[in-house]
């Protein structure tokens, strides 16, 4: 019996496992590296500086000077007003306006006769242009075609107008 007790005592003594016998433990996931968030762009200034230039195209055999308008609405409508008007002597034109951000702009041109209403006029096909951005907002190499049409009156300048029409309100 003494031998049995001695065997039981030895059987109860267990030595700790060696590190080599220890099963591998799962490692904690490493934190995911995230790309830094770029800073928000600076806010736009209240007004956009818009430069518009291009070429006037006249019907074959027609030459002369044309008044080019940067307007706040569709060309030749009574409520439309011009932010700027420039006389183009030849086929090239350029205009610059300072307008509230988001203003929609139409480009119109007409050969204004000394008497009567204009019958040679045109509207930029890509209109309206959106005046939005910091620095200079450029619209270049535009083509505005003039053609014979119903008589129209010159577009009145903005300073001759009353309140700003809805077409100008930023969206």
Description:
The model is unreliable at 161-171 (pLDDT under 50). Helix content is 6%, strand content 42%. Strand 5 and strand 6 form a beta hairpin. The strands form 2 sheets. Strands 2, 3, 5, 6, 7, 9 and 10 form a 7-stranded mixed β-sheet that branches. The protein contains 1 helix and 10 strands. The chain has 171 residues and is mainly beta.
Secondary structure layout plus pairing:
Elements (H helix, E strand, L loop, with lengths): L1 H11 L34 E11 L7 E7 L9 E9 L2 E9 L2 E9 L6 E6 L5 E3 L4 E10 L1 E6 L3 E2 L14
Parallel strand pairs: 1-8, 3-10
Antiparallel strand pairs: 1-4, 2-3, 2-5, 5-6, 5-7, 6-9
- Summarize the main sheet: 7 strands, mixed
Termini separation comes to 100 Å
What is the ordering of alpha helices and beta strands?
HEEEEEEEEEE
Poorly predicted parts? 161-171
Helix share bin: under 10%
**What class do helices, strands and sheet pairing give?**
mainly beta
Per DSSP, what share of the residues sits in E-state strands of 2 or more residues? 35-45%
Oligomer: single chain
Helix count equals 1
Radius of gyration based on Cα positions: 38 Å
Number of strands: 10
Shape: elongated
Average pLDDT confidence is 84
């Amino acid at each position: 019996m003494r031998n049995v007790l001695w065997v039981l005592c030895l059987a109860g003594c267990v030595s700790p496992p060696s590190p080599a016998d220890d099963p591998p433990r799962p490692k904690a996931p490493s934190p995911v590296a995230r790309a830094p968030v770029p800073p928000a762009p600076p806010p736009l200034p209240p007004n956009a500086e818009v430069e518009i230039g291009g070429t006037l195209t006249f019907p074959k055999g027609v030459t002369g000077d044309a008044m080019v308008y940067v307007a706040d609405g569709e060309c030749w409508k009574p409520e439309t007003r011009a932010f700027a008007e420039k006389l183009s002597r030849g086929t090239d034109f350029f205009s610059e306006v300072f307008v509230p951000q988001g203003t929609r702009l139409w480009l119109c041109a007409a050969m204004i006769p000394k008497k009567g209403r204009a019958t040679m006029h045109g509207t930029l096909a890509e209109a309206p242009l959106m005046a939005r951005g910091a620095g200079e907002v450029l619209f270049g190499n535009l083509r505005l075609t003039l053609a014979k049409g119903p008589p129209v009156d010159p577009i009145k300048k903005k300073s001759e107008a009353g309140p700003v029409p809805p077409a100008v309100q930023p969206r």
